[in-house]
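Attaching the record inline, Q. Sequence:
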Amino acid sequence: MSDRRLMRREETRFLKAAQRVLLQGGFPNPERTGCPEKSILKAIASREVSPDKVMDWIEHVGMCSPCFREYTELRKRVAWRRRAAYLSIAAAVIIVILTLGWWRWRSGQPTLITGHFQIVADMRNRLVLRGEQGPGNRPLVFQRGFDDVSFYLPEGSRAGTYNVAIFHEEPTAPLLSATGTATMGSDKTILKAALDLSHIAVGNYLVGIRLPGTDWSYYPVVLK
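Structure, as predicted:
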């Protein structure tokens, strides 16, 4: 006979024993005559005893109310521990999945740079071109962070509100836009603008400057 069939037979006999205990007043056995040790009952309840040895005790447990009650309580504990173990495993799996998902999402996010930098960008001797870099057209260098940039605008620039933007080397839509106010000094026009470059990757770009309603003037810039 297979182990599974023996286990089913065991459960059937215990159910019949339960009927006797509940409906027929049970079998008190106050002297606990012939009762197995608690370790044996625990092993039976935990299914840690081979079916052939279970059969050695099953008739007694089915005819002894104290053993039956003790066995029933032990089975409840075993079932509770198994449910708790399954829940723990399920919770651990969920935590691992959520953690992996979070790390995958986090790895796809840009690294935020929180440095705050004061930068002076002297545009007075720079060519408004995107061709070969000559002595007057070397790239500006900005830091990846929160940059407060003071642009020294080319001679003849007037005061007012300017648009400032960061573009790819082939300018289309700006990656970053800001506005700044230019004021006239004794010898130069200074445009001050705050640029949040923390979300833009390192590399070569263009910084564009214009008065609203006019064309952009582009200057090479390197983000580090």
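The chain has two domains: 3-105, 116-223. Residues 130-136 have pLDDT under 50 and may be disordered.

More tomorrow.
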